[in-house]
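Please check the following.

. . .
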Amino acid sequence: MARTTDDIASRQRPSKARQFWIALKKAPFTAKMGMGIVLLYVFVALFAPVLTPYGESEVVGSEFEPWGAKFLLGTDNLGRDMLTRLLFGARNTVGIAFVTTCLAFLIGGVSGILAAIYSGWMDQVFSRIVDILMAIPALIFSLLLLTIFGTSIPILIVIIAVLDSTRVFRLTRAVSLNVVVMDYVEAARLRGEKIPWITFREVLPNILSPLVAEFGLRFCFVFLTIASLSFLGLGIQPPTADWGSMVRDNATLITYEDITPLLPAAAIAILTVGVNFIVDWFLQKTSGLRDGQ
C-alpha cells in the first residue's frame, strides 16, 4: 500500500523541467534581468561573425572617426570599426573567462574534495601549497608569470586558472569536510566503494549548490582579471579584440569628451552585474530564504 502511495506521489510530482520553469516564473525581476543579460552576451559571442559588418582586425577607415552612418560607434586608434571589435570582444573575453573558470573549478574542486576525503598528509600538502599561492597578490603574481612564460592564450588560461583554483579549493574543502563525516559516506566506504564513486556520487551532489554559486562569482573575478591584464598589456594580445585592451587603446578620446572608450568598460560592468543578479537569486533559492511578501 505504501509503495502504491509513493508511486502516485511520484506521478503527481512535476518533472524537473517543469520545476525549473515554475522557479523561473517566481524569480525576482533582478534575476530575470540577469538571465536576459547573460543570454544576450552568449548570443553575441556565438554569432559575432554574423552580426558584425567587418572583420575583427580589418582596417576600414582612418583613426578615431566619429560615430556616423558608416561606423555606428566610430573607429579605434588604428581605424578598425569599434562596433565590430566590441562584438568580437564578447566572444574572446567572455569565452576565455568561461574556459578559465571551468579549469579553475576542475583543479580546485577535485583537489579540495580529495583533501577532505583523504585528510592527513594529502590535506596538509594541498593546504600549504594553497596558502603559499594565496599569500601573493593574484594580479601581481599573474603579471610576473606572464612576463616569464609569455602571453599566449593557453598560457594565460592556465596561469589564471591555477591561481584562481586556490579560492575554489578552500571553499570545496570546507564544504566537503561537513559531508565526508556523514553516515552515507561511511556506509559507501564500508561497502568497498572506490574514491571516484565516493567523490562523484556521494560528496559532489551534496556540495553542488555552493559550488554553482561560487562558479558565478569566480567567473566575474576571472573576467575582470583578464580585462585588467589586457588593459596592462599582458592579457589577450592584439589583433584579437578584447574589452580591456580596447579601453587602453582608445583612452585618449576621454580627454576630448568622447565616451567611446567607456563602451567596452560598460560591457564589462553590465555582464558582471547580470551574473551577480543570478548568483544572488540562486543563493537565496538554495538557502531556503524567502522574500518578505
Summary: The chain is about 70% helix and 0% strand. Residues 82-118 form the longest helix (37 residues).
